Amino acid sequence: MSRKLGSTVRARRLRRELKQLRNATGLSTDQAGERAGMSGPTISRIESGKRGVSVDETERLLDLYDVPLTRQRELLDLAERANELGWWQAYAGQITDATQTEIALEEEATRITNFEVVLVPGLLQTAEYARDIIRTSNFSDQPRDVEAKVAARMARQSVLTRPSAPELQVILDEAALHRFREAQIMARQLRQLVDAASRPNITVRLIPFSAGQHASAEGSFVLHEFGEDPAIVLLEGKTADLFLEEPHEVAAYQDAAKRLLQVALDPSESVELIDRVSKELQ
Fold it and tell me: Where is this region: Disordered (predicted)?
């Protein structure tokens, strides 16, 4: 189990490629380190994600592994992009490292599955709903910090409207529709949820109270998928977040998502129920 994720998806992809290339040459980490002018422990730390790798170091390793020039250019471009700063770095003083990692995952995901028990997912929240949640859960925050967090959360949502937007599948326990402090704020939030569900890349599925206990009653999770690259699961906590990368751990949540969908209302029924609750609150 990984308690924190110290790199972007691009960096993970790069270190996986470097490890595969080294293994293909039959070199040990010590041999590769010595020949590349580095060290065995440095190669191990790069491949395990405990240390970053510069473009210059990547080029030296690619030369050592006798990688064809065309492939070298692809991997060097990947190395450059892996070290780029994201827009969210501007909020580094207001949002946690885990939140920054979550945003990086959202930016590179091809598909996101988010199950929530009592909250509307951040990617679909209105500013006023997000503000209410942030104030309630971070009661020691100063007003400017609250507004910075709200701004960052709103900025995150642009990922859903870009040309290469990921597919977002939201699974909500019906309890999330009834957990609020101000009815009008919640009514507007549910209205936005209905509108979001009409987008081609967004699906909202609701698990009604009538379904009883279900496959993830113990808590929420976010499953990030990246096409052919390994998926990552995020479990959010009050004082720390967990990022799961081990295949058997990820598979457990992929299975949980499938089981949740089996008891959820279909998309049209889900929207109808959300719309009905929204109108009752107005």
Answer: 23-43
